[in-house]
């Protein structure tokens, strides 16, 4: 295994990433532009490699949470538009402009400060408005002030307006419709007030992108579904999403323990009979949370149970028989879905792959060929 020195790794099938987005666009929004949300390292899948794969099918707009994430994409050659959802410091706006990035305006105070104190080159912006999530965004009473400030400033160009849905995957759509109505009302007012055309209007997440959308929505934000995971298991699609991520480790020790043997910290597990216990080279520092004790892994041809307290770098598995050291252990893959891994971790599928540490190397495959290995512990990317 070239490019890393610990037998725990993630495999990403970029063909699946490409096919998922191509099918979503074909069936649901063939006439709209896609904004691929690759924040948090594309939910743990690797933002640079996912973005590069999507560029090959014409996706040229990306969303990230922080300026650091945006600069990472630029430094690795991503040329499309990049929107930063989170707050950007005024002292960094010249860097934003120099890298042709787009910032979010989320508060009146920030904009007033920027208009009066930023002396640099023009900055591209999208206006984030509050419609009901109550996290970040311009409230309706402040809209006049914000648009007037933008109209009067030559240093900020308003290109888009967006918000964030709170309940899109829910079967009860009451709050979804409330937010959508609020958003369209704000957009109408902003369009009347703004001296420039608001080119991009967006509010969808993955779940909402599958609904019948108002004609005003012309930019689709896609996140979780890019990588083949449904935001809600009972969502029906006319095609099958293909999960792109698999997580593997290996057995680094196997021993036959007599009945009554204590296993792991705090002696949380005691063998009920003579048992084969395997030590696996992955732990909570990698994203295998303590709550996963009692969950399952797949070894060769059988499901095995995780036992004992999960350590920082290791965990224990009760085996049905002897397996040699070096045997591959599947945590996510053909036999264990992300949703099953999520349930065993007692978390949500949005969280599960984000939790996977960047100390785990990522191996990227296309057309069944390994094309890159990313190991952030000692270099960023080794092209095969």
Integer average pLDDT: 95
Say how many strands there are: 20
Number of helices: 10
Helix content: 25-40%
Low-confidence stretches: none
- Determine the strand fraction and express it as a percent band: 25-35%
Order of helices and strands: EHEHHEHEHEHEHEHEEEEEEEEEEHHEEE
Largest sheet: 8 strands, parallel
User: Nearest-angstrom radius of gyration?
Assistant: 24 Å
Structural class by sheet pairing and helices: alpha/beta
Side-by-side strand order of the widest sheet:
8-7-6-5-4-3-2-9
Distance between the termini: 12 Å
Shape: elongated
Structure write-up:
The chain has 384 residues and is of the alpha/beta class. The protein is 25% helix and 27% strand. It contains 10 helices and 20 strands. The strands form 3 sheets. The protein has an 8-stranded parallel beta sheet with strand order 8-7-6-5-4-3-2-9. A 6-stranded antiparallel barrel has the order 10-13-16-15-14-17. It has a two-stranded antiparallel ribbon with strand order 11-12. Helix 7 runs parallel beside helix 8. It is elongated and about 80 Å long. The chain starts with 8 loop residues before the first strand and ends with a strand. The model has no long low-confidence stretch (mean pLDDT 95).
């Amino acid at each position: 295994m070239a490019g890393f020195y610990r037998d725990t790794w993630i495999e990403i099938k970029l063909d699946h990433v490409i096919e998922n987005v191509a099918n979503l666009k074909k069936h649901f929004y063939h006439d709209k532009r896609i904004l691929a949300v690759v924040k948090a390292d594309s939910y743990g899948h690797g933002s640079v490699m996912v973005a590069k794969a999507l560029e090959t099918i014409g996706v040229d707009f990306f969303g990230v949470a922080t300026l650091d994430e945006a600069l990472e994409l630029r430094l690795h050659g991503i040329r499309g538009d990049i929107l930063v959802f989170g707050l950007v410091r005024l002292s960094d706006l010249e860097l934003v402009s120099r890298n042709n990035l787009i910032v979010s305006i989320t508060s009146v105070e920030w904009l007033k400060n920027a208009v009066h104190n930023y002396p640099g080159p023009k900055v591209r912006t999208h206006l984030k408005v509050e419609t009901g999530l109550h996290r970040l965004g311009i409230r309706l009473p402040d809209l006049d002030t914000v648009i007037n400030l933008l109209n009067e400033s030559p240093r900020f160009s308003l290109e888009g307006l967006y918000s964030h849905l709170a309940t899109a995957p829910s079967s009860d759509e009451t709050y979804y419709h409330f937010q959508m109505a609020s958003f369209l009302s704000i957009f109408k007012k902003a369009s009347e007030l703004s001296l420039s055309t608001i080119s991009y209007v967006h509010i969808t997440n993955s779940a909402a992108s599958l609904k019948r959308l108002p004609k005003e929505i012309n930019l689709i934000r896609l996140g979780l579904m890019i990588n083949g995971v449904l935001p809600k298991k009972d969502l029906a699609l006319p095609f099958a999403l293909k999960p792109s991520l698999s997580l593997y480790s290996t057995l680094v020790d196997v021993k036959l323990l007599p009945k009554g043997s204590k296993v792991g910290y705090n002696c949380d597990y005691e063998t009920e009979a003579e048992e084969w216990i395997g030590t696996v080279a992955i732990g909570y520092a990698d994203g295998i949370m303590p709550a996963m004790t009692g969950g399952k892994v797949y070894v060769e041809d059988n499901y095995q149970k995780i036992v004992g307290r999960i350590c920082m770098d290791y965990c224990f598995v009760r085996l049905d028989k002897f397996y040699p050291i070096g045997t591959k252990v599947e945590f996510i893959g053909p036999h264990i879905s992300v949703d099953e891994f999520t349930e065993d971790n007692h978390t949500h599928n949005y969280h599960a792959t984000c939790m996977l540490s960047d100390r785990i190397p990522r191996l990227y495959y296309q057309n069944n060929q390994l094309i890159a290995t990313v190991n952030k512990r000692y270099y960023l990317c080794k092209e095969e």
